[in-house]
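User: Sequence recovery, please. Input:
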């Protein structure tokens, strides 16, 4: 015979502190993702232009991918430096 665990009648939807924690988590995520989106859109532009260009423009494609790598490296350094001001 299988015994199942009996939980108390606690629901996260009824618990105010868990809802408040969810609000704080959502605010933290917004504080992080809005600057991340603002600073990351050039990398999407670099990659999409390098992807769209034909194979004849191999030098330009390599330059764009190098700029993409440089931009990602700069972003990783910037987010480490300014993470305290983002309240993450």
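Assistant: Recovered sequence (88 residues):
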């Amino acid at each position: 015979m299988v015994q199942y665990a009996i939980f108390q009648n606690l629901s996260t939807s009824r618990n105010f502190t868990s809802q408040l924690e969810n609000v704080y988590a959502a605010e933290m995520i917004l504080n992080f993702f809005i600057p991340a989106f603002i600073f990351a859109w050039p990398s999407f532009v670099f990659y999409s232009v390098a992807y769209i260009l034909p194979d004849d423009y191999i030098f330009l494609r390599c330059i764009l991918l190098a700029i993409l790598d440089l931009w990602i490296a700069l972003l990783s350094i910037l987010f480490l430096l300014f993470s305290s001001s983002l309240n993450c």
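The chain has a mean pLDDT of 77.
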